[in-house]
Amino acid sequence: MIASVVPGPALRCAGLVKRYGAVLAVDGLDLEVRRGECFGLLGPNGAGKTTTIEILEGLLAPDAGDVEVLGRSWARDSRHLRERLGIQLQETFFSDKLSVEEILRLFRSFYPRGRDVDTVLAMVELESKRRAWFGKLSGGQKQRLAVACALVGEPELLFLDEPTTGLDPQSRRQLWALLERYRADGGTILLTTHYMEEAEVLCDRVAIVDRGRVIALGTPRELIASLGADHVVEFAVEDGATPPSLDSLRVLAGVRDARREHEGFAITTSEVHRVVPALLDALDTAGHRLSMLTTHSATLEDVFVALTGRHLRDA
Amino acid sequence: MPDRRPPHPLAELTRTRFLEFVREPEALFWVFAFPILLAFALGIAFRTQAPQPIPVGVVQQDGGEAVLRKLRASDGLAPRVLARDEVDVALRNGRVHLVVEPGRGATPPTYRYDRTRPESRLARLAVDEALQRADGRRDVWSARDELVVTPGSRYIDWLIPGLLGMNVMSTGLWAIGFTVVQARTRKLLKRFVATPMSRGQYLLSHMLARLAFLVLEVGALVTFAWLVFGVPINGSLVTLAAVCLLGALSFAGLGLLVASRARTVEAVSGLLNVVMLPMWILSGVFFSSENFPDVVQPLIQALPLTALNQALRSVMIDGASWTALGVQAGVLTAWGVLSYLVALKIFRWQ
Ligand SMILES: Nc1ncnc2c1ncn2[C@@H]1O[C@H](COP(=O)(O)OP(=O)(O)OP(=O)(O)O)[C@@H](O)[C@H]1O
Ligand SMILES: [Mg+2]
Predict the structure, then answer these.
(1) Which domain, by its residues, includes A59?
(2) Phi, psi angle pair for B3, to nearest 5°
(3) How many CB atoms within 10 Å of residue B220?
(4) CA–CA separation, A16 vs A67, rounded Å?
(5) Which of A119, A253, B59, B203 is deepest in the core (most CB within 10 A)?
(6) ipTM of the predicted structure?
(7) What is the mean pLDDT of chain A?
(8) Whose C-alpha lies nearest to ligand 1, atom 6?
(9) Which of B5, B14, B26, B195 should one mutate to test binding to chain A, selecting the residue with the greatest count of A CBs within 10 A?
(10) How far apart are CA B53 and CA B99, in angstroms?
């Protein structure tokens, strides 16, 4: 990794706007990614993550806003930037009838300096598939090849658009480990995801994006702490009697907040041991019968729900 | 670990194009097998034959027998008797080229035939001569016939260069049109422009990969035609190769231009047909483009396939050297260079 002499953030953008006809895909978005960090854009389908990342990658022109990557602008230094960035698009289908090795060699040839093909194959653990045609790879292997093509130019800054979507948990963990190693070598990552777990594991900082805007920004820990409670109690009652009101739940001992969910309710709290007995008592008194009760530690998903009233997956 | 000898991008792009193509069995069929099958079928259909007697009809009525006898006396004719209601059908489907209606008494006969059909006009001359001679006409003098066979004058000798040109055109356009549009729909082009790859080199690699095939493609057809039909190459092989090369580059450029904006395979197929069909018809593949009126000749001469076919025929039939092909080379170069430059300018990378 060649450390850049220019100080300052790896990436900065301000006031990005992108319209597709009547759709406002990106609506005045500001970001700053520091050198050496892993920064995540977390948001539901259609939030504008891909549009944003493609503007930052210099593949789409914004309708308004400024972009600065590694201290340079796309308009003046695109060649310089192309040699220093590694990019994985949300979807790319390489030629079905080229082998893993042939595809990597091709991408390697575009970069004046970079890693050799064998090294990259080892990094993504695709050595055994070296001679397999792209069309015959599994989804996870294709995804790893896409990341390999992004790494082959030895980039300073890596853009990954949903790198682990569609992968099984084991492949996902392998990819996470690979990205950790890239970080350990001093690389900077900007990735998008709608897996909160991925953001929590990988990212130093996360921007939660909804409807083309950043609605929350911070480390995963800070964002979860902003809920003011680190646990969530979810429950549902059997049909029949009128369901309990939110106000009646909010006054229970230890409850920070309460809201409706698909099939029931969610309560945020720091004191599960006080909330659960109080809740059971209250429901019993009102004549409700529990049909479901679970508790979990608060996640970024809960942050998103608290901010928007919607879930990441079905927003 | 840095690479000591990084691969060259143009070489890698060309190599992968080539590999993608050879791994596609259908493509191989259209490039190699199809032109040979076509040449074989046409060569058989239009093979040179001994002159056949001309089929003519005689209407069944009074005096028919006499006419039939007189016609039979001439060996260039194959007369047959036709019922009156068979006449129109027999003429229409070419069973006879002319029908004789015998005259009554001293009235001369009537000939029924279509004047726009050359074989019918020929039949009229032969029938008229046979009947007049039988009735006593004498020739003033008779000429001596000297029969020759001009080498390279058979239809197949003329056809093979045309098929070669057509093949260079269609494989160039299809191969490039398809791979480019497929790469676009698969977002591969977008992925490529996200790297430092040179766009000009990407397009150039398509043109270069074509050349690798050309040797095989042209070689297969020319060798086949030579072995099976004895089609000669009167000019030098080097000139022939140079003409094919120029033609292939020209059509590769055109292929890039056709594929430069299309977003779907269907769209590019339609466009390719629009580009190729006029040239199949106008540029003298199966029949001479001299058949078209003078007003459209300048247009026809400006088409790249016309130039390629003319150059190929000059080399293969007339044994022309490179210096005689300046105009055709100019037309092909202009198409290739302009198409490439325009394609590079208007190309849709995403
Ligand atoms: N080329 C396009 N033409 C029209 N609308 C588009 C186009 N690309 C994106 N959009 C719209 O812009 C909005 C943002 O899309 P974008 O792809 O950036 O979302 P995303 O956050 O990446 O979603 P996902 O998680 O599904 O990938 C969506 O409403 C989408 O329909
Ligand atoms: Mg996306």
Answers:
(1) 11-224
(2) -80, 135
(3) 16
(4) 8
(5) B203
(6) 0.86
(7) 89
(8) A20
(9) B195
(10) 15
Atom of ligand 1 nearest to the CA of A52: 18
B95-138 pLDDT, tens digit each: 999 999 998 878 899 999 999 888 899 999 999 999 998 888 88
Tell me, what's the pLDDT at A287? 84
Ligand 1 lined by A73 (C-beta under 6 Å) = no
- Tokens at B204, concatenated: 């150039």
Looking at the CA of A23, which ligand is closest?
A: 1
Do A239 and A275 sit in the same domain of this protein?
yes
Q: In chain B, what are the domain boundaries?
A: 9-46+154-346, 54-134
Q: What does the alpha-carbon distance between residue B268 and residue B121 come to, in Å, rounded to a whole number? A: 46
- CB contacts of A114 in chain B (<8 Å) are 2-3, 6
> Which of A19, A23, A59 to mutate to test ligand 1, by most ligand atoms within 8 A of the CB atom?
A23
Q: Tell me, yes or no, if A132 comes closer than 8 A to chain B by beta carbon.
A: no
Tokens of residue B152, six digits: 């390279």
Global pTM reads 0.80
Measure the N-to-C terminal CA separation of chain A; round to a whole number of Å.
Answer: 39
- The pLDDT, as a whole number, for residue B3 is 47
User: Which whole-number Å values give the CA distances from A217 to A12, A166, A209, B300, B304, in the listed order?
Assistant: 14, 26, 9, 67, 61
Residue A313 pLDDT: 66
pLDDT value of residue A5: 53
Interface subset of B 126-165, CB within 8 angstroms of A: none
Structure tokens at B247: 């033609």
- Domain with residue A246: its CATH number is 3.30.70.980
Nearest partner of A207 among A8, A6, A7, A13, judged by Cα: A13
Tell me how close the Cα of A229 comes to any Cα of chain B, in angstroms: 43
* Chain-centre distance for alpha carbon B349: 35
Residue contact A114–B2, C-beta within 8 A: yes
CA dihedral B268, B269, B271, B273 (to 10 degrees): 160
Q: How does pLDDT run across B26-38, given as a tens digit for each residue?
A: 877 877 888 888 8
- Residue B152 has a pLDDT of 67
Residues of B (15-34) whose Cβ lies below 8 Å from A: 15-16, 19-20, 23-24
What is the atom index within ligand 1 of the atom nearest the CA of A50?
Answer: 22
- Domain B54-134, what fold? D-Maltodextrin-Binding Protein; domain 2 (3.40.190)
Burial class (CB in 10 A: 0-12, 13-18, 19+), A230: middle
Q: At residue B78, what are phi and psi to the nearest 5 degrees? A: -125, 85
Q: Are A99 and A211 contained in the same domain? A: yes
| Per-residue pLDDT reduced to its tens digit, A43-74 | 888 999 999 999 999 999 999 999 999 999 99
What is the spatial distance between Cα B157 and Cα B151, in angstroms, rounded to a whole number? 9
Mark whether A137 and A159 lie in a shared domain.
yes
- Hunting for tokens 């698009």 — which residue is that? A89
* A51 CA closest ligand 1 atom index: 18
State yes or no: pLDDT of B1 exceeds 50: no
Give yes or no for A163 touching B (CB within 8 A): no
pLDDT band at residue A14, thresholds of 50, 70 and 90? very high
